[in-house]
């Protein structure tokens, strides 16, 4: 299907080869080849139900690919891929559904699954609280009096919740950050902040996968673009090869006809 | 656009740290209920309730179900329930008796008993978390399974556990230390251990997260299957502990051991402020609630009230305090959500 396959130099940080994913009788992904190289931002576009979120969750190890699909990390085939493994290797995700535990205080959410421990192996609650307070004021622009780390997440606004999810991905100094619809439900300034955050990932030489419905958010920040349609990769573009107008045109066409050309 | 103000607004009208009442509201509530009840008993029968013997009696019997309630708190916080612990009490103690009868000696018997309890808990946990079977359903099934296995193994007969034959077991489970019944000392030790496990370990942190939102927890790399399974194993171990303690207390292992424990134990967990919806709960609350339920039992009888009133008193205290907790909780929540 894909008319051009630009391949940046080097070994991909993460690579999926021939990955399919079936849920019961529904085939969400079929034969996906997908790669992210060091220092690049890859955009993932596609209509609702194209398989974007399933692809992200497969990259993260939440979904196990159907037999035959392979996941490679830094040039090595990995058999026992799992979320814990992916996070250990430096992949962090801001999920579309935010993946927060809303009855818990901010500090428990911030360190979910990666809780720091003292030298006796006990939970370092003091550090979790103070680091959360620091992150909230430094990265999210909350004054320390406005949001207390002991505040329960369910009392926060949508933008604040998203802030927790983004700050959490940022804190662990990931090599690859995946953002699944991070600007959904955000105000203009919050969206601007999020896009700055994505640009900053590239500036420090890390990689990112950026998924968003709004092509005006995606196009300016990415280096390469994957277009997904009905579980298949319909096209891969280097940003230098395609203008935004042309891309929009093709997205309309693929949604109608299932073909990019 | 007023995007500037929409960001600032929610931040401005929220009180910074959650109030003391909000954080410990339900614990305060349960301690309050306990105090009021105790004052009521003292007023009703001052001579009885100023006598230390009454406290000695219920300090011996309350831990029999309170210890299981502390462990069950973990399972309830993960959003599950275990109804099979009365059967595990019996099966674990049966394993002890059988090993000792076969000439294994009491230490080997203890190992066998706790191993049995752990396996029972593991079976419950694995069925619930691997196969995603609702725990309410499957633990009714395993309850019959464990009880049935125990009845078949013991052939329906009991075993005497006299102090002459089992001096060490009586020292462990039925003596006094510094004038305090050892049962209550065990319960305090287990409470402290459980508090650290729940509030100061990764396992405990994951118990809260898995119970709050299992999908979020899994998306962030938490092994929900393992967390739930370990919680059920904890109940299995503590049920065995309690089965042994209860049998030694009565000098006899009855094949029916554990019967009558189900509701007391579960009531202690919920009375202690642990939410049936998962994600929130406290072992300290369960500890206090266990003694409240224990006190009703001892108190009613000692106050010279007809024992038929016991269940009525249980029901009143449980219903009234759970309703109060819910109302307090809702009120605190609404106040903290100003502007919404």
Word description of this protein:
The complex is a heterodimer of chains A (261) and B (340). With 261 residues, chain A is an alpha/beta fold. Helix content of chain A is 33%, strand content 23%. Chain A has 2 domains: 1-90 and 174-261, P-loop containing nucleotide triphosphate hydrolases (Rossmann fold, 3-Layer(aba) Sandwich); 101-172, no CATH class. Chain A is built from 8 helices and 10 strands. In chain A, the strands form 2 sheets. A 6-stranded mixed sheet of chain A has the order 6-7-8-3-9-10, with helices on both faces. In chain A, strands 2-1-4-5 form a 4-stranded antiparallel sheet, covered by helices on one side. The longest helix of chain A has 16 residues, at 188-203. The mean pLDDT of chain A is 85. Chain B has one domain: ABC transporter involved in vitamin B12 uptake, BtuC (Orthogonal Bundle), CATH 1.10.3470. The two termini of chain B are 21 Å apart. Residues 1-15 and 335-340 of chain B have low confidence and may be disordered. The A-B interface holds A 57, 60-62, 82-84, 86-87, 93, 95, 97-105, 108, 112-115, 117, 121-123, 125, 141-143, 145-148, 150-152, 155-157, 159-160, 187-190 and B 1, 3-4, 6-7, 10-12, 14, 16-18, 23, 196, 199-202, 204-206, 208-209, 212-213, 215-223, 279-280, 336-337.
């Amino acid at each position: 299907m894909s008319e051009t396959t630009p391949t940046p130099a080097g070994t991909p940080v993460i690579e999926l080869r021939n990955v399919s994913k079936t849920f019961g009788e529904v085939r969400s992904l079929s034969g996906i080849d997908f790669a992210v190289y060091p220092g690049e931002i890859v955009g993932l576009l596609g209509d609702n139900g194209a398989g974007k979120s399933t692809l992200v969750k497969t990259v993260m190890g939440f979904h196990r690919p159907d037999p035959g699909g392979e996941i490679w990390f830094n040039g090595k085939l990995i058999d026992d891929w799992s979320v814990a493994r992916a996070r250990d290797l430096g992949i962090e995700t801001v999920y579309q559904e935010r993946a927060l535990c809303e009855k818990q205080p901010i500090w428990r959410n911030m360190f979910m699954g990666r809780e720091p421990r003292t030298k006796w192996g006990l939970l370092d609650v003091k550090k979790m609280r103070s680091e959360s307070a620091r992150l909230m004021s430094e990265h999210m622009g909350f004054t320390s009096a406005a949001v207390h780390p002991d505040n329960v997440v369910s009392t926060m606004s949508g933008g604040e919740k998203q802030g927790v999810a983004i700050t959490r991905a940022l804190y662990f100094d990931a090599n690859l950050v995946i953002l699944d619809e991070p600007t959904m439900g955000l105000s203009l300034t919050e969206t601007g902040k999020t896009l700055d955050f994505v640009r900053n990932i590239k500036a420090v030489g890390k990689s990112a996968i950026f998924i968003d419905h709004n092509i005006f958010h995606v196009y300016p920040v990415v280096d390469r673009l994957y277009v997904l349609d009905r579980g298949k990769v319909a096209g891969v573009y280097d940003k230098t090869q395609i203008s935004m107008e042309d891309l929009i045109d093709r997205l309309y066409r693929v949604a109608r006809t299932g073909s990019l050309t | 656009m007023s995007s500037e103000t929409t960001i600032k607004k929610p931040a401005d009208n929220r009180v910074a740290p959650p109030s003391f009442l909000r954080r410990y509201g339900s614990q305060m509530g349960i301690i309050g209920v306990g105090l009021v009840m105790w004052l009521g008993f003292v007023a009703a029968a001052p001579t009885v309730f100023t006598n230390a013997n009454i406290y000695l009696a219920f300090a011996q019997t309350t831990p029999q179900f309170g210890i299981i309630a502390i462990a069950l708190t973990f399972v309830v916080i993960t959003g599950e329930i275990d109804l099979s612990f009365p059967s595990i009490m019996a099966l674990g103690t049966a394993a002890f008796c059988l090993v000792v009868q076969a000439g294994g000696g009491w230490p080997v018997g203890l190992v066998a008993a706790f191993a049995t309890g752990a396996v029972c808990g593991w079976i419950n946990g694995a069925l619930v978390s691997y196969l995603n079977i609702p725990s309410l359903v499957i633990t009714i099934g395993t309850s019959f399974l464990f009880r049935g296995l125990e009845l078949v193994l013991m052939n329906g007969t009991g075993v005497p556990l006299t102090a002459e034959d089992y001096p060490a077991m009586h020292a462990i489970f039925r003596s006094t230390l510094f004038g305090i019944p050892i049962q209550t000392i065990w319960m305090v030790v287990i409470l402290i251990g459980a508090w650290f496990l729940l509030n100061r370990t990764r396992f405990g942190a994951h118990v809260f997260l898995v119970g709050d939102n299992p999908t979020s927890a899994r998306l962030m790399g938490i092994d929900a299957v393992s967390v739930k399974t370990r919680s059920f194993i904890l109940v299995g171990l503590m049920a065995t502990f309690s089965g042994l303690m209860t049998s030694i207390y009565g000098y006899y292992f009855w094949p029916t051991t554990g019967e009558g424990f189900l509701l007391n134990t579960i009531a202690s967990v919920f009375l202690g402020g642990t939410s049936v919806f998962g994600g929130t709960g406290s072992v300290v609350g369960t500890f206090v609630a266990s003694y409240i339920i224990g006190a009703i039992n001892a108190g009613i009888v000692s106050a010279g009230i007809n024992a038929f009133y016991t269940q009525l008193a249980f029901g009143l205290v449980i219903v009234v305090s759970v309703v109060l907790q819910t109302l307090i909780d809702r009120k605190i929540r609404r106040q903290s959500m100003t502007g919404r």
